[in-house]
User: Which sequence fits this backbone?
């Protein structure tokens, strides 16, 4: 039953995401999207929808009219107006006439339903005919891409069906900000890019999906958007349309060689702003390339213009705005990626007809994304403290960066050249020395092959008088440059440059860029084969190639290992909370526990911190005036935020990543690192922390709190043995509860004296 429940929640999140991200804009903007390519439609929906939702929600908040009803009215109202705009008067009146005939008895309800179903079936058949006509010529490609996307969804979602708690501590903060939107307050934690929060708030409001479920499962679903955006860019990079499949396949199955790399890949399964917006940098780069390659001249405001304006520039602008609206790290990565292409297309970037529109589009993107933030600051809302954290990254004072920086390795190469430092502190740190040498060799080889092809094509054209497409592999060099630049940013601390991005956040994108470089020779091979083989044969080779990559990785024993989550509570605590929410009336209960239950119970009930509860029990009169009060006690307190690796079938994961965490506090599902409560621990003194959550993160303090909690429960049960109940118990966790009269609640200060050592 537990698996069925979470499968239902996953399906609900999948439907809500697809409906809001793709169906809504596809229908509302169907006139603009008519006759557009599939990748254009995808890019339009993902970028425009995020910017639109971000602008609408923040705008409503600034006007102090953000609530459930205004959001429902705007989004469903626009959908309804779009429907009536697209339906002819004859169809509307005909439908109304059929309803009228049913209402007056002139036509039976069964006949009416049968007629409507026939109309629907006819429309679906017509739609399927159009789709099949589009799919059939490239059916092999779509099958391969679909298999890769489904595999990616399974890999990045698998662990969430083994552990149901939030996989990363930051999700608690983001949940609280989304709840601020539910309550009509924007930037409740301070000004911060809110693109993800606004989108999730809309999903929750429009479809009634729980915020907890969305934050738990959305990342594994949204990863598909990341993969398709990468595919879209690689279609511009490679000359052969089939090579992107090889790069994606390697990204999804090849093992990793460092904790930082596994951390970055694991983040793709966490619903957090940077990873939510990670796709935007690839969309941004794709349409910059298409714009720079375009030679069409369009009308602007009905007049001829000497400047180049087209739809590619529009999507570049919207992708840039989407990156700013979701996370500033994504914008920095987009800049680095676009800079790599701008270097190669330098002349086109600074040509008279392109540079001004390009500069204007960047300014427009900044304007669209920054206006809500500027308005919020003008209204007196302060910046969120992460802004100071970002400065800490640049100044080398960020704890995350400090923890991942290898000081011993740096001391060995201090005084060496920048290239040596990047190699040692970048490639070797992330990929290990042996693999690092191969990566550098392939990177240099890819650049050399591009140069040799350009020289060879030039010589053939000059001396043999035969024209070749000299620029067909020009997409290779920018990716080579980008892979080097990203690694330089990763190792920037070692070479004395400002740390623009925490290095560990770059590894997933860098992994994709390096694997793209690795398959560049195959692009040249496939391009040569394409001169002699028919399209069907090339599709077959692509299918066999992806299958061959997978089999070779399995045979070589380098299939990727487990991703991990920062485990914070037992599954039994999650499911007990869910049962309470579903079975009891709203706001009729209070759960006394550590912080983790707070966000699951928001909008359903009340929560009290154990630390606050134990302090208040020392007072003379302390009551919780709800009908039910539940007490969660971990008999084996969890080592909070331990690296908890999931397990899976052999076709999905191996044990290659387990050894990387041998020196860290980690566990392999279903094992969990924990301690044991005891009367002796209950008498110990707690260390003072700034807030309860910080205290719970330290295992010793958590054990003391849970031990004191258990002691209190035993004392209360002795005073009220007939009211005290056990709601759930296993070897790790126990839930006590009692029922009381809300107007005459029990005094919970039961004379408990905290005898600390």
Assistant:
């Amino acid at each position: 039953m537990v698996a069925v429940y979470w499968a239902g929640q996953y399906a609900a999140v999948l439907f809500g995401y697809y409906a809001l991200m793709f169906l809504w804009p596809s229908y509302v903007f169907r006139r603009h999207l008519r006759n557009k390519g599939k990748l254009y439609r995808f890019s339009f929906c993902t970028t425009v929808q995020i910017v639109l939702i971000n602008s609408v929600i923040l705008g409503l908040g600034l006007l102090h009219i953000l609530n459930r009803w205004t959001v429902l009215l705007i989004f469903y109202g626009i959908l309804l107006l779009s429907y009536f705009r697209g339906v002819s008067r004859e169809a509307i009146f005909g439908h109304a006439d059929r309803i009228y005939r049913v209402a007056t008895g002139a036509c039976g309800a069964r006949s009416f339903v049968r007629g409507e179903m026939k109309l629907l079936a006819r429309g679906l058949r017509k739609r399927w005919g159009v789709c099949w006509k589009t799919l059939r010529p490239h059916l092999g490609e779509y099958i391969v891409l679909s298999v890769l996307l489904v595999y990616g969804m399974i890999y990045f979602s698998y662990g969430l069906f083994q552990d149901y708690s939030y996989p990363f501590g930051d999700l608690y903060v983001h949940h609280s900000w989304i709840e601020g939107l539910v309550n009509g307050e924007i930037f409740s934690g301070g000004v911060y890019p809110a693109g993800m929060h606004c989108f999730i708030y809309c999903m929750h409001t429009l479809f009634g999906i729980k915020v907890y479920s969305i934050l738990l499962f959305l990342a594994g679903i949204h990863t598909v958007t990341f993969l398709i955006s990468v595919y879209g860019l690689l279609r511009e990079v490679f000359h052969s349309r089939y090579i992107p499949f090889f790069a994606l396949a390697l990204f999804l199955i090849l093992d990793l060689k460092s904790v930082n790399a596994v951390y970055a890949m694991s983040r793709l399964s966490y619903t957090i702003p940077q990873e939510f917006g990670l796709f935007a940098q690839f969309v941004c780069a794709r349409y910059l390339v298409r714009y720079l390659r375009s030679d069409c001249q369009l009308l602007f405001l009905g007049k001829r213009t000497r400047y180049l304006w087209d739809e590619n520039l529009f999507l570049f602008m919207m992708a840039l705005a989407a990156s700013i609206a979701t996370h500033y790290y994504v914008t920095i990565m987009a800049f680095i990626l676009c800079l790599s292409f701008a270097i190669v297309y330098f002349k086109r970037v600074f040509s008279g007809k392109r540079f001004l529109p390009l500069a204007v589009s960047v300014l427009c993107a900044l304007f669209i994304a920054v206006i809500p933030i500027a308005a919020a600051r003008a209204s007196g809302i302060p910046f969120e403290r992460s802004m100071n954290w970002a400065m800490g990254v640049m100044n080398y004072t960020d704890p995350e960066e400090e923890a991942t920086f290898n000081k011993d390795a740096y001391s060995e190469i201090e005084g060496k050249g920048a290239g040596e430092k990047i190699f040692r502190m970048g490639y070797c740190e992330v990929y290990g020395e042996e693999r690092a040498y191969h990566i550098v060799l392939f990177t240099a080889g890819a650049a050399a092959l591009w140069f040799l092809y350009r020289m060879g094509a030039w010589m053939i054209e000059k001396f043999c008088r035969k024209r070749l497409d000299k620029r067909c592999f020009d997409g290779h060099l920018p990716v080579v440059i980008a892979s080097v630049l990203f690694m330089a940013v990763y190792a920037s601390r070692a070479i004395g440059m400002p740390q623009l991005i925490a290095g560990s956040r770059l590894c997933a994108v860098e992994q994709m860029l390096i694997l793209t470089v690795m398959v560049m020779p195959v692009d040249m091979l496939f391009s040569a084969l394409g001169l002699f083989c028919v399209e069907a044969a090339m599709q077959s080779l692509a299918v066999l190639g992806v299958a061959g990559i997978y089999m070779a990785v399995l045979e070589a024993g380098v299939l990727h290992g487990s991703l991990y989550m920062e485990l914070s509570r037992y599954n039994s605590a999650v499911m007990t909370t869910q049962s309470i929410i579903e079975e009891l009336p709203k706001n009729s209960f209070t759960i006394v526990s550590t912080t983790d239950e707070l966000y699951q119970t928001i909008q359903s009930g009340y929560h009290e911190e154990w630390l606050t509860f134990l302090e208040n029990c020392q007072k003379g009169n302390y009551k919780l005036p709800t009908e039910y009060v539940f007490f969660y006690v971990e008999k084996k307190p969890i080592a909070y935020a331990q690296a908890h690796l999931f397990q899976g079938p052999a076709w999905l994961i191996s044990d290659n990543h387990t050894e990387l965490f041998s020196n860290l506090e980690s566990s392999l599902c279903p094992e969990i690192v924990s301690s044991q409560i005891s009367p002796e621990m209950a008498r110990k003194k707690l260390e003072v922390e700034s807030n309860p959550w910080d205290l719970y993160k330290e295992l010793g303090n958590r054990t003391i709190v849970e031990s004191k909690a258990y002691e209190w429960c035993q004392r209360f049960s002795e005073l009220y043995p007939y009211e005290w109940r056990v709601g759930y118990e296993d070897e790790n966790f126990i839930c006590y509860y009692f029922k009381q009269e809300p107007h005459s609640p029990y005094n919970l200060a039961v004379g408990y004296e905290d005898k600390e050592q």
